[in-house]
Amino acid sequence: MKKFLLKAVSFFAIFIIAYVVCLFCFCNIMPKKLQKNVLYLKNSTGHLSTRLAEADTCSQVDVLALGSSHTYRGFDPRIFRRHGISLFNLGSSAQSPIQTEYLVKKYIDKIHPRVVVFDMYYTILQCDGTESALDLFSNSPGIDKGLFEMALKVNTIPAYNTFVYSWFKTLNRQNIKEPAIKNNDTYIPGGFVERTINNNQYHGQHIAPAHFEINELQLKSLQNIVKILKEKNIRLILVQTPYAPDSYRSVVNRDSLDRYLSSLKDAEYYNFNDTNIFKNDYFFDFSHLNSKGVEVYDSILINKLFPGGHL
Amino acid sequence: MLFNSIEFFIFLVLVYAIYWFAFSKNLKLQNTFLLVVSYIFYGWWDWRFVFLLMLSTIIDYTFGILIHTKKNKKLYLWLSIFNNLAVLGVFKYYNFFAHSFQDMVANIGFHVDPYFLAIVLPVGISFYTFHGMSYVFDICRERSVPERNFVDYSLFVCFFPLLVAGPIERASHLLPQVVKKRNFDYKQSVHGLRLMLWGMFKKVVIADGLAPSVNSIYADYSHMSGLSLLIGAFYFAFQIYADFSGYSDIARGTAKLFGFELLINFRFPYFSRDIAEFWRRWHISLSSWFRDYLYIPLGGSKNGLAKSVRNTFIIFIVSGFWHGANWTFIIWGALHALYFLPLLLGNKNRRNTGEIAPGRFLPGIREGFQMLLTFGMVCLAWIFFRAANFSEAIHYISSIFTNKFRSGMEVKQFIAPYVFPVIGFMLLIEWLSRNSDVDAFFDTISNKTLRYSTYFLIFFIILMFGSFQKASFIYFQF
Q: Which residues form a coiled coil (chain B) (predicted)?
């Protein structure tokens, strides 16, 4: 029995070390197509690398925007500036409350905003957070304790694998500067990503009905965010940034999300999908606003939430 | 609780530690402990059905004693069978019969609204009821004696590794192991871990890796190219094999850790040279169950050719129906009976009982051709098994020939670059083990470094290419 347990424990100990080494070699040698459970997304869609680098140099803004791609494609600091409000956009692809909690803890005292606007796209409250975790692991300037805790929280094999690989990569960092213009996306200082395509390429396509179901882990993180911001006396505004009407209507139980978010204490909630203003030509796909849509959305949001530039 | 979940891993470590460290000197405590954790394992899915499991156990336990002690054995046997089939009938087949009756009556111009039950099918119900039935059958035939100790009998029915998807054990095989003191055996434990590792590879990498492609192809089969449909049929053959045999390997491996040997359920069925051999290698515990408790009592092959053919069709169709309350399963079974027929009529059904390619690395041309042909026939039958209904299966098959064979880049989405290499790796390891068992195959790697490197490679493939979406095992639904 002792021999069996000793051998099993030794095997696992050696296995872990060998696995980490082999993972690193495998990912460096093999093409990306073969890396099914390692998704190293350095400098991929969303300009997160550039945004995090800018966040490190940013201090004291009026509004900090957080959330998924709806955020970094929906809140344009240039429009806010025209209304006398400074904004930094810290959105990232598929950012769920688990990632937002990490970003709040890491940047809130540095950026020191007076208001936090957090986008509540329904999928981010039901996902497990893997996609956004991989984005953060790959694009963070360094691996820290918070990211490790995030890997444990997300608790999926791709998250662990990518965390380990990203950690290796930060040890051997090659500073490949992310270009400001990638495909049709242009990074605008302040964290915004502008899409040059304006027509909705997805209009008319069938969108399958979706059913919103809240993930308890995401809920807990959302509650933690509310608590942290309350302790720091920062106004928290939860918003549903508009997404294409067909897509919005496909969420069968969208009212339950509204009910839940409206019931949260210490946070305001606004759903901009219910305004009937945002038709299909305000989007470049089934989910994201185009530049015309952003212009309208940001103006409406500022006038509603910050009338006269008052925060 | 799924074998491929972190909950099961924690459960197993805790149960293993308590079993060997706290109770190793007391068999009664060991068995009671295993029974309690087996109920916890089952109740993890839905605790309400633990009571159904207990009820089924009590009924068969009682009838086992009655059959043994009372004069009117047959009466008690039939009562026991009636009870077991009633449980299956209510939970699994009632709605099917009600639907079929409704359709049949509608075909002759009448409309009826039968009462449909809104109930969930309890996981593993077909497995544990068959367990219980084999026990009472064996007692009636005086092949075994009833177990008086209720805990020991309950453990025979509910032992957690085999509870939800088999293998369907026999009292004569498992009960003696339950009542005998079990000592820790290093070799048995090592073999157990190997089987678990291999089963996990098959489940997580092959079965769950192929599942999304299979689901997409079957969901939209009418718009798929012929090539994609062929790939869908091919993938499903490997998905279901890897899923079910993976489960069986993990179950056998887990049982070994606790000192039990369970029946082997699969012996590399896709290397079979004809359908008769396929059924000696696929879901062995079920096919041997039907052979012993249905085919032989019906007269088997001893009462002339006509009865032999009739009995063959009966067991294949019943076996299909065992899988689920749907005509597709019945047709799947009937199709296999049709495949079997020429072998039976030509008295060739026991032609391929020996080793596959003995003493050679590769099969001969004839053997290879036979294997491919058998595999092709099995794949065709799987289409009926997988399809939602009969017309879908027919459309699927006809679309292979009528739809455009290739359609642009469509097929590429179903062929990830690692899919064929991992299937190839599975086939290679199983081919090398074909005349023994996978856990014994590792013993043939005499070089320790090479052996441990092979374990490592399998682990590595699991973590690099596995799908970890908490996918249930296909056979849980049966």
A: none
Q: Of B138, B157, B183, which residue is a domain's last?
A: B183
Are B91 and B222 in a shared domain?
A: no
Residues B154, B157: Cα–Cα separation, whole Å: 5
Tally of domains within chain B? 2
- Classify residue B326: in a domain, yes or no: no
Structure tokens of B343? 């072998």
Q: Which domain covers residue B408, as residue numbers?
A: 187-273+352-477
CATH of A39-309, one of 3.30.420.40, 3.40.50.2000, 3.40.50.1110, 3.40.630.30: 3.40.50.1110
Best residue of B203, B464, B469 to probe chain A, by most A CBs closer than 10 Å: B464
Q: Choose the closest CB to A36 out of B418, B455, B456.
A: B418
Helix axes B27-43, B48-69, angle to 10 degrees: 130
Does one domain contain both B364 and B266?
Answer: yes
Specify if B316 maps to a domain. no
Q: Which of B189, B452, B464 sits opposite A26 (nearest CB)?
A: B464
Same domain, B116 and B211: no
How far off is chain B from A14, nearest CA to CA, in Å? 10
Nearest chain A residue to B6 by CA distance is: A155
Q: Which residues 23-42 of chain A have a CB within 8 Å of chain B?
A: 23, 26, 31, 33-38
Tell whether B109 and B87 lie within a shared domain.
Answer: yes
Interface residue A157 vs chain B (CB under 8 A) = yes
pLDDT of residue B228: 94
Q: Say how far apart CA B244 and CA B469 lie, in whole Å.
A: 17
Number of Cβ atoms within 10 Å of the Cβ of B58? 13
pLDDT digits (tens, 9 = 90+) for B132-189: 999 999 999 988 899 999 999 999 999 999 988 879 999 999 999 999 999 999 999 9
Max intra-chain CA distance, chain A: 75
Domain-embedded: residue B299: no
What pLDDT shows up at residue B472? 62
The residues, ordered by sequence, that sit 6+ positions from B153 with a Cβ below 8 Å of its Cβ are B57, B60, B61, B64, B135, B146, B147, B175
Of A141, A205, A148, A201, give the one whose Cα is nearest residue A173: A141
Asked if B466 reaches chain A (Cβ–Cβ under 8 Å), the answer is yes
The answer to whether residue B201 is domain-embedded is yes
Q: Which of B68, B42, B69, B45 is nearest to B56 (CA)?
A: B42
A3 close to B (CB below 8 A): yes
Please judge whether A1 and B452 are an interchain contact, meaning their C-beta atoms are less than 8 angstroms apart.
no
Chain A residues in contact with B416 (beta carbon < 8 A): 33, 36
How confident is the model over B287-311, as pLDDT tens digits? 999 999 999 999 988 888 899 999 9
Cβ-Cβ contacts under 8 Å, B466 against chain A: 37, 157
Q: Which of B183, B203, B238 is the last residue of a domain?
A: B183
Nearest one of B125, B137, B118 to B89, comparing CA atoms: B125
Residues B146, B266 within the same domain: no
Query: Does residue B70 share a domain with residue B21?
Result: yes
The size of the A-B interface in CB pairs under 8 A is 43
Residue B223 known to be catalytic: no
Pairing label, strands A192-195, A185-188: antiparallel
* Contact (CB<8Å) A15/B459: yes
Residues B168 and B195 in one domain: no
Q: Do A37 and B465 touch (CB under 8 A)?
A: yes
Distance, in Å, from the CA atom of B374 to the CA atom of B171, rounded to the nearest integer, reads 33
